[in-house]
Design a protein that fits this description.
- By secondary structure, the protein is mainly α.
- It has 2 domains: 23-186, no CATH class; 194-266, no CATH class.
- Helix content is 74%, strand content 4%.
- It is built from 9 helices and 2 strands, in the order H-H-E-H-H-E-H-H-H-H-H.
- The chain has helices at 24-68, 70-75, 89-118, 124-160, 177-192, 195-204, 210-215, 217-231, 237-273, and strands spanning 79-83, 170-174.
């Protein structure tokens, strides 16, 4: 396990990347090592989810569905059943479900592998924002996932309300589809909440300017809504809106954080020049 997180190519002790220039082959070797480690992490998370986490997670999500969907149908006397369409469907569902669960569990460690590959090329002043933001990345990911967990019952209730407009019908729900819907919602929201950190990090190292972000805020809002439409597994306007609005708020916070950081940086440079 210790070897998994060991630096594949020992670097110069200096923090200045200019003092150690790796060759293209060395970069490719390190990239290969990081990818292999990430794959092992995914496999480990997948196996852990298969044997340890899946029964508990399935029970939690099934309970959430039962509390939000079935009572509405029962009140209107609409028949509903959970069905498998093929003999192999249960196995394929568990395969996809546990892989998605495993990815969520090992996501922070995947970030560490990405950081381990990128950090040697950054100067100390460029590394600083990323080191500060790393814990917030994990917090925002699970905050987004938690928000999706709260939102999903409301979304399912909203969808189910349209079934009662057609009396005399029945619902034969594909087993596992609602469970995967809830899990995909959590994953999509967790990843989308990373937008604010990406914007702030790029601004902190000087790739983006706060003035540019403020000038093109309308374009950014459109892009956020497009991303929300793509990321939401249900592709309905309600879920898209519930993702886009928090992302717009987080984006605005990151823009003003970039503005504050760049202003303070200019002040330090002016004081040192004086």
């Amino acid at each position: 396990m210790a070897a998994l997180f060991k630096n594949p190519n020992p670097r110069n002790s200096s923090d200045d990347p200019e003092e150690f220039r790796a060759t293209l082959v060395e970069h490719l070797e390190e990239l290969r090592t990081r990818i292999i480690r990430s794959l092992w992490l995914l496999v480990g998370g997948w196996v852990a989810a298969w044997y340890l986490i899946q029964p508990w997670a399935s029970a939690q999500i099934d309970g959430m569905v039962a509390r939000s969907v079935w009572p509405i149908l029962d009140q209107k006397h609409i028949h509903h059943e959970i069905v498998w369409h093929t003999a192999t469907e249960a196995f394929m569902f568990k395969l996809k479900f546990t892989f998605t669960l495993g990815f969520i569990v090992v996501f922070p460690f995947l970030l560490l592998q990405a950081w381990g590959f990128v950090s040697p090329a950054l100067k100390p002043n460029e590394k600083r924002p990323f080191k500060v933001l790393a814990p917030f990345s994990v917090v925002l990911f699970f905050t987004g996932a938690g928000f999706a967990w709260w939102l999903t019952p409301n979304a399912l209730t909203w969808f189910t309300s349209y079934i009662i407009d057609f009396p005399g019908t029945a619902l034969f729900q594909e087993a596992g589809s609602l469970t995967m819907f809830a899990l995909k919602m959590m994953l999509a929201f967790g990843l989308s909440f990373q937008l604010t950190l990406v914007v702030y990090a790029l601004g902190a190292i000087g790739v983006l300017q706060a003035s540019t972000l403020l000038k093109y805020w309308r374009h950014s809002t459109v892009i956020i809504f497009i991303l929300s439409a793509v990321l939401t597994p249900s592709n309905d306007w309600f879920t898209m809106l519930m993702m886009a609005l928090p992302m717009c708020v987080l984006f605005s916070i990151s823009v003003y954080a970039v503005k504050f950081t760049q202003r303070r940086k200019k002040k330090r440079e002016a004081d040192s020049g004086a």
